Amino acid sequence: MVLTKQRSTETPELPSHNLIGIPIIAVIGVGYVGQHLVDLFSSRYGVIGYDVSPSRVEQLRREYRGVNRITISNDPETLKVATHFLISVPTCLGPNNTIDLSHMQSALKIVERYARPRSIVVIESTVAVGTTRALLGKLARSREIYAGMSPERIDPGRKWPPAQAIPKIVSALEDVVPGSQRAIEQLYRSVFENVISVTKPEVAEMTKLYENCQRTIAIAYANEMADACVNFGIDPFEVAHTAASKPFGYLPVFPSPGIGGHCLPVNPVYFMSTSNMPLLQQAHETMSVRPSKVASEVLASILEDNHRAHKPNHRSRVLVVGVGFKPGQSDTSHSPGLQLLRFLHQSEKVDVMFCDPFPSLDYDILQRLKQGYCTSDPRFCSAPTCLFEYGLPCYKHKFPEGFNTSNLDRSHIGDVVYGKRITECKKKGVIALTYDDGPCEWSSDLLDLLKKNGIKATFFVVGWRICNRGKDFMENEYTAIIERIIDEGHQIGSHTWSHKSMDEMSSEHRKRDMLKMELALGNILGFVPTYWRPPFNACKTKECLEDLGVLGYHTSIWDINTKDWAGDYAYAEDQFLTSISSAPSSESSWIAVLHETHERTVHGLTQWMIDRGREQGYEFATMGECMADPEENWYRYLPSINTFHPK
C-alpha cells in the first residue's frame, strides 16, 4: 500500500561496455563499513561478503541466513564468480605511527587473482593521497580493469540519514583505462541516491582526509577552550552549547577526553605522510595525549579530595561509564575511555570499575576489572546487563517506581498478529493518525486539536519522557498528559523506555527496556499496552520481532511515512494526499506516522491531514480500531492491589 517512490528490485543492467555477465559484487572486508555495502548492493545484485575472520563469518552467516542474494565466506575460491570488487578493509597504523597497508595489500592479492577485464575494483577504505593509483594503476592497465576510489562515509551509531542517502563520492583511473569513470558511477548510482563524481582518485582521497582531519582540529580547539575555561570558573559545555546557537559560520563541537575509532586518530597520519601540515600535526599530537592528561587531572582531583575530606588511607572508587570509542558502540579502537580506565587502574591509587555492556572483554584491562563490573545499585546499572543506554543522562537510567511486570500474564489475546510487523489496517475506510516520541510541550495543544475535531488517535509514548527532566516520577506535568490521552478516548502504545534501536540490543536488553516502560505507564494507569512501535523502525530482525511477540506486543508500523521530523511539510502533505487519493476510501485504509514533538506537525499538518482525509471520505480511528481489535485487547491490566492511580 506504500506509495513512496521505490527503486525497482530487479537487478539493473550496467552499461553495455561494462557488462561481463550477471553482476556479482564482492565486498572484501565485512566489518562495520563492509556490512553496509553488503546490505546496500544486495538490494540490487548478488553479493559475496568475504572476510578473513572465521568468527565474523559465522556471525554474518547467522544474520543473513535465508537471504538468497548474500553469500558470506572466508574461502577466497568463493570469489571466482565475482565480477566487481569493493575493498573495505582496515587501514591501520604500525609501530611509531607509521602507515600500515598490510590488510589492503592482502586484499589486492586476492582481487588480482580473480578480477577479469572490465571488472570494477574500488577502494572504499581511507588511504593517503596517491595510494589508489599506486596500488591499482598497474593492474588496471595490464588487465583493463575499471579501478577507482570511493571513500566510505558511514558514521557508527548514526541512524539518519540512511547509508544510501549519504552523498557518495566516486572516482576512477579514467586516464589509465577510459570508460572507468562511467562504469563505476553507474554501479554506485544503482544503489545510492546521490553520487558525486570527481575528476580523479586523488581528489576523493584528499576529500575524505580533509573531512575527518577538520574534525580532529576542531575537537582539539574545543579542548583548548575547555582548558582556558578552568581559570575563569566557566563551564566549557555551557560555552559550547551557547555558541552552537549561532545558525551560521560555526561548527558545533564539544570538549572531550579524546578521539577514538578507526578514523580520527588514524587519518591525520595518512594525510601528513604526503603533506607538510603543522597545524594538523599539533592537533593530532595534542589529541593523542588528551586521555592521559584528563586521567591525570581526574586522579589529582580525587587524591586532593581524599586528603582534605577523608583519612589518609581512604581509597576512592571510580566508575568509568562507557569504554567504547563512542556511545552505543562495541568498538574500542583508540577509545579514550579505555585509555582513561587503564591510566587510573595502573596508578594503583584508586579502585576502578567500568560500565559498558557492548565491548568484548578480550582486553587485558577489562578482564582484570570484570569482577568489579558496574555499580551495585540495580536502579542505575547492575552486572552483567549494565547501562546499555549509557548515552542518556543519568536520571533516564533510573527504574521508575511501580508494579514489577516481569511476571505478568502475556498470553496472546485477540486476532491481531504477534511477532510480525503490522503495516496496514484491517478495517477499510479509516485513517489511523499515530504520534510518536511524546509526551512533550506540544501534547496538550495536539489533544485540544483532536478534541475539537472529534478525532481519536494513537500515541506511542517514550518512557523516560514521562519521567522528564529528572523530576520525581509522579510530580511532573507529563503524567497528566498520559491520563488525559486515556480519559479522552485515545489509545496509548509503547515507544520503548530509552528510544534506542531495538535491533541492536540483546534479547535481555530489549526485555529490560520494555519492562521499564511498563513500570512507567503502569504506575500511572494501572495497565500496560499491547501495541508498540519500534524507534527508527528498527525491529526488523526475526529475533527482535519474536522477543516482542513473547512479551505480548503487536509491532505497529505504518504505510504513510510523513517524515515530518525532517521539516519538509510539502513532502509530508504530498505523501499523505497521494496515498489516500490512490483508491476509493471504501477500498483502502491507512496508518500515518507523525511526531508530536514538532510544532508544525501539531499546529498545521494535523489539521490539514484531517481536512483532506474527510474530503476523501475517510473516518479516523485508533490503531486498535483500524485493526478491528476490541478495546479490551489494547491493554493488559495489572493486579489492582499493586496499581496506583493518582485519581
UniProtKB/TrEMBL annotation:
PROSITE patterns: NODB (PS51677)
Pfam families for the chain: Polysacc_deac_1, UDPG_MGDP_dh, UDPG_MGDP_dh_N
GO molecular-function terms, A-Z: hydrolase activity, acting on carbon-nitrogen (but not peptide) bonds; NAD binding; oxidoreductase activity, acting on the CH-CH group of donors, NAD or NADP as acceptor; oxidoreductase activity, acting on the CH-OH group of donors, NAD or NADP as acceptor
Gene3D superfamilies assigned: Glycoside hydrolase/deacetylase, NAD(P)-binding Rossmann-like Domain
Domain of life of the native organism: Eukaryota
Biological process according to GO: polysaccharide biosynthetic process
SUPFAM superfamilies (alphabetical): 6-phosphogluconate dehydrogenase C-terminal domain-like, Glycoside hydrolase/deacetylase, NAD(P)-binding Rossmann-fold domains, UDP-glucose/GDP-mannose dehydrogenase C-terminal domain
Residue ranges occupied by any NodB homology domain in the UniProt entry: 429-621
Family: Belongs to the UDP-glucose/GDP-mannose dehydrogenase family.
NCBIfam families: NDP-sugDHase
Name of the molecule in the record: Carbohydrate esterase family 4 protein
Organism: Periconia macrospinosa
